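Following up on my earlier thread - several people asked me to post the actual chain instead of describing it. Fair enough. Here it is, all 298 residues.
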Amino acid sequence: MRSPVTGIVTLLALLLVVIVGYMSLFTVQQTEQTIVLQFGRPVDVVTAPGLHFKAPWNSVINIDKRILDLENPSQEAIASDQKRLVVDAFARYRIKDALRFYQSVGSIQAANIQLTTLLNAALRRVLGEVTFINVVRDDREKLMLRIRDQLDREADGYGIQVVDVRIRRADLPEQNSQAVYLRMKTEREREAAEFRAQGGQKAQEIKSKADREATVIVAEANSQAEQTRGAGDAERNRLFAEAYSKDADFFAFYRSMTAYENGLKASDTRFLLRPGSDFFRYFGSPSGKTATETPAKP
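Reply from S.P.:
Thanks for posting it. Predicted structure:
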C-alpha cells in the first residue's frame, strides 16, 4: 500500500507540472504580435497567431498590429504668405517592428505622444512652404502626402509605419474669419449697390425711351385723327352743299328740325327770342313761310 505521504507528493508533483505547463504556454491573437521577455530582456518576437511555448520564467507583452488612430488636437501654423491657419489633422499608423517599437517607446500611449509631436512639426514645415490658397483649395492632397512621407520617415526609427495623414480642417482663426466675413459682406454690399444703381439707370433710360416713343405715337395719332376729322368735315360740307343745291327748302327744313331736336330738351324748353324769329317759322307753316311773307311773283 502507498503511504499518505507518497500520495501527497504525487499530487504536488502533478500540480507543479500543471503550473509549469501553464506558465510555458501563451496565445497570440490574430490582431497581435508578442514579444517574449527573459528577465526584462527581449529574447523573441512571435507574429504568427496560435498557441506557443516559452520558458516558464519568461514573460510576454502583446502589441497590437492593426491600424491605429492618432487624433491630433488643432494646431496653428503660418503659411508662406504669413496667414495664420488653424489645422485639424489626424493620422493612421501600424507597428511594423514590434521589437524596435518596444525598445524605443514601449507602449502605444507613449507612441501617440511622440507621433503627435512629429506630426505637428511636419505640419508646420510643409504648410509653411505654401500659401493659404494652396492649403485650403489647390494642393491639399499633395500636401497631405508630403506630410505623411515626412512623418513616416521620422517614425521609422520607432518601428512605426505611417499609413495615412489627413487634414480634416484648415481655416483661419476665428477673429480672422470674422474679419474676412465682414470684408466679403462689405464687398458684396458694394457690388449689390452698384448693380442696383446700374439697374436704376437702365430702367430710367428705358422709361425715357418709352415716354419719348409714346409722345411720338400720340402726336402721330393726333395728327392722323385731325387729318381724318378734317377730311370728314370736308366730306360733310360737300354733302351738305350738294344736298342744298338739289333741294334748298328740304335742306333748310332738315337743319331746322335738327336745331329743334338739339335745343328743345325734355328738362328745359325755355328760349329767349323775338316773336318774329325765323327759328320758329316751321311751327306756324309746314313750308316755313310766315304769314306776312308774300308769294313770289311769277
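Helices lie at 4-23, 98-104, 108-127, 132-138, 140-155, 174-246, 248-263, 281-284. That should answer part of your original question.
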